[in-house]
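Reply to dn_fold:

You asked what the input looked like. This is it:
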Amino acid sequence: MTQAAVTETNLGIGTLYRGKVRDCYRLADALLIVSTDRISAFDWVLPTPIPDKGKVLTTISEFWFDWLATGPDPVPHHLLTTDVDAMRLPTAVDRELLRGRTMLVRQAEVIPFECVVRGWLAGSGLAEYRRSGTVCGVKLPAGLAAGAELPEPIFTPATKAASGHDENVSFDVMAGAIGAELAATLRDRSIEVFRRGAAHAASCGIVVADTKFEWGRAADGTLLLVDEVLTPDSSRFWPAQNLTAGRVPDSFDKQFVRDWLETSGWDKSSPPPALPHDVVVRTREKYLEACRLLTGRLPFSAVRMP
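and this is what came back:
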């Protein structure tokens, strides 16, 4: 049987702060990031977890960090190890709870912008394009259909929100806040990482429609790729076999969850309802499928749910 879902950790080490999905522990010289099985939708953390989801996010991120750090143009990143036994944690910490879902990373000063890259027309970008012919203010050619590939990937930064929706901003706003040179570097690096990742994903049968990256500076000034990378939570993944002209395909991630919530009668302003078992099972299977296709392996203990 699969390990019970992990919805929260309390390790009693460092300084803890919780995101929607991750529990982060700031230690003396590093950061411990634990990906739980929490799932969010419509800016709410749902009461029902998706077992093994945190392991999927960690496995995929580890794969990309390692993969991007190789080749002629390596991308520096913050990951130190995912091996819990090598993290020199206090003996009282439950290593089995953390195994497979934990990253020890270099501390970095995170740059307060989401570096979003869009390669295909979907989501809020599609809605804006239909209104004004733009995506996040970027003018696009007329006549693009829903789910169409853009002529070139576009960079559409957003401010990082502690809770709720991030807010799309122009490149000029970003440049005004952090400086034109750094903003241009982040734009160019983000687009390049997107291109490299999307090419690998395409060879695995996955279209990366869009994604968001986070970057930070290490103490020595090195620009690092941080947080998670090209996961189903940070990206819009489509099965390549489902591409159909004029239609946005269903995603690899929370589509079953979103679809069920939309028809559940939930008003999106009060605490969300629990998810039915079949929605949990199908959503988990989608995360696992994305992991298997991209990395060639599954998180350990990721067996079929009854």
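The domain at 109-242 is CATH 3.30.470.20 (D-amino Acid Aminotransferase; Chain A, domain 1).
Hope that clears it up.
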